[in-house]
Amino acid sequence: MAGKIVSRRVIAAGLAVAPLAWSAWAADSAPAEVRSALPTARLIGAGQLRFIGLLVYEARLWAPQPPAEPTNESLALELLYARTLQGKQIAQRSLVEMRRIEPVNDSLADRWLEALRTLLPDVHAGDRLTGVQRPRRSTELFHNGRALGEVIDAEFTRLFFGIWLSPRTSEPALRARLLGLAEASRP
After folding, report:
1. Residue 71 · residue 168 · CB < 8 Å
2. Beta strands 42-51 and 54-63: pairing type?
3. What is the CATH number assigned to the segment(s) 31-178?
4. CA separation for the pair 58, 120 (Å, rounded)
5. Tens place of pLDDT per residue across the chain (187 aa)
6. Which of 180, 63, 69 is nearest to 130 (CA)?
7. Which of 63, 81, 84 is nearest to 19 (CA)?
8. Which of 124, 165, 126, 132 is nearest to 150 (CA)?
9. What DSSP element (H or E) covers 116?
10. CB 44 within 8 A of CB 180
11. For the chain, what are the domain ranges?
12. Model pTM score
């Protein structure tokens, strides 16, 4: 009986540290879709988004070099989700955040929302959404490494990545960590 208890404790301890080990490994190597789009990309910074104290996702910014003008340079943003969210909710929230950065007329907002609703899947804990910014051109989206599609619209791209990288973001501390301007390990 004691052997079983020890085994369960060992297994439980292993499971408890597994996410930390994965996170440390993942921070050192760009996902395949990032390496394909930006072969010289390296991790610039990382941080977490929390809502009412609950972890929503961990974000990582990949680029060939620290971006001087983040919404105007080639880069990739990877989000590792910690909970289940509906794609339609993510799309709606994205548009709210884009409009917070800069006004968007209703007709354009409707087109962008429809594009996001079409592309964004429901996510579950452990899922990754990655966006590749092609400045002045397009946003390409991936789910767990699988291409979802592309929004070819320079203004959409600027405002979409602005959700995290614009000086007008609603999450300035996360922006600072992503851009390597603050300690990534601080929540």
Report:
1. no
2. antiparallel
3. 3.50.70.10
4. 17
5. 444 443 344 333 343 444 443 444 345 689 999 999 999 999 999 999 999 999 999 999 999 999 999 988 999 999 999 999 999 999 999 999 999 999 999 999 999 999 999 999 999 999 999 999 999 999 999 999 999 999 999 999 999 999 999 999 999 999 999 999 975 444 4
6. 63
7. 81
8. 132
9. helix 106-119
10. yes
11. 1-27, 31-178
12. 0.82
64 token code pair:
């060939």
Strand partners, 58: 48, 80
Q: Are 62 and 164 in contact (CB under 8 A)?
A: no
Length of the chain: 187
CB atoms within 10 A of CB 87: 18
**φ and ψ at residue 166, rounded to 5 degrees:** -70, 145
